[in-house]
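Intended use. Records like the one below are meant for learning the mapping from a protein sequence to its folded structure. Do not use them to infer anything beyond what is encoded.
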Amino acid sequence: MSTAVVVGAGPNGLAAAVALADRGVAVTVLEAAEEVGGGTRSGEAIVPGLLHDHCSAVHPMAVGSAFLRGLDLERHGLHWRWPEIDCVHPLDGRDAAVLHRSVAETAAGLGTDGKRWRLAFGSNTEAYEKLAADIMGPLLRLPSHPLRLARFGLPTLLPASAFARFLRTEGARALFGGVAAHAFQPLHHPVSSAIGLGILTAGHRYGWAVAAGGSRSIGQALASKLRELGGKIETGVRVTHASQLPATDLTLFDLAPGAVAAILGDRLPAATARAYRRFRHGPGAFKVDFAIEGGVPWNHPSARRAGTVHLGGTYAEIAATERQTHAGAMPERPFVLVGQQYLADPGRSVGDVHPLWTYAHVPHGYTGDASQAIIAQIERFAPGFRERIIGMAVRSTSDLPGHNPNYVGGDILTGAKDPAQLLLGPRPGRNPYSTGIPGTFLCSAATPPGPGAHGMCGANAAAAALRYLHRRLG
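Structure written out for the chain above:
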């Protein structure tokens, strides 16, 4: 029987392990933390019984993941829940743009931009499964659906600023800009439309779901599936040097490229070592969890029913703050994401006290305290919010790597999603998962298709490893 070791039990490491075990490989996963899940862990932070997601929280890409959907994870405890409204982007005053799962319902609320929104997302949403077969894997390959990919893919090469000019109303532009800002990139850079268009299309197809019982349910379900297939998981095992790794046919790393370079040292080919050590990390996240009484008093009624709320003002304001953050300057009014997962999953709350998940975009390695800036942004669109706070827990850009070493400098995407790294991964080549060492692969969110709890980076890396194994065994 062939053997494999996977270092790191985030969703991609677990996905890779499941894919290998399903093909008869004897897999052992080594995880430094005491629990699996990586960025999908959850736990109590402020009030006993109040459940907070530690990082990844809302999952439009995971709920539609072809790999996860094929595993029957419901049997292992993973159940999806949807809020009444996917996302709201408030503007100053009482205006807001509202994102529904339905393209038609979203378009109906965007006034004169409704027809343009339907044009951008209608047919692509209907054909999402065909698109996903191409966009959720390495891009340097022959596409399965070339015409459909071209229709979707050409706009993704544009700067988000160019796509925003396609929209005419301030609400629609802000709504798109808030989703595009998930890339942590300046919105005038090439390919900065890609992540926004991908999230919006997947969301219109499958909705912005949350995992019942917290995002931890994703990692726990994958771990349960792995054990069912005969795989093993060892927690509390921190790998820092190649000498700690047993001899196996395959080794996969769910780690940032710099960490892999440190572990493998001069075993790596020189070109790979240079690429991994020069791997670029992006701006950071400054995370604050709140315990709030009675919910957030949003000005706009739709925000009180939305699983996600984006706080950034107009498109122009979002673009300006993302430029500042990327340049290393802390904006006075940072872009803030707010998660109200308890609306879809009420078991996370304790009576009328609810967990509120937030983070702000801040410069890489930011050493200041952004908690008051986050509160001020919420107060801007929900006056009276401060009075409802009964507790808060803060994770700065220096705290985040202690919780998950892949988040270097607070970079929760595991690498800057600039054009080269978004399209090619950590090093040029047709196989972004290969380290150049036979049988050794990278499977983290540093590889295509990038961040999210979808598990596709791990599944793709496992497929590359299995092809190697097949060639070796003849």
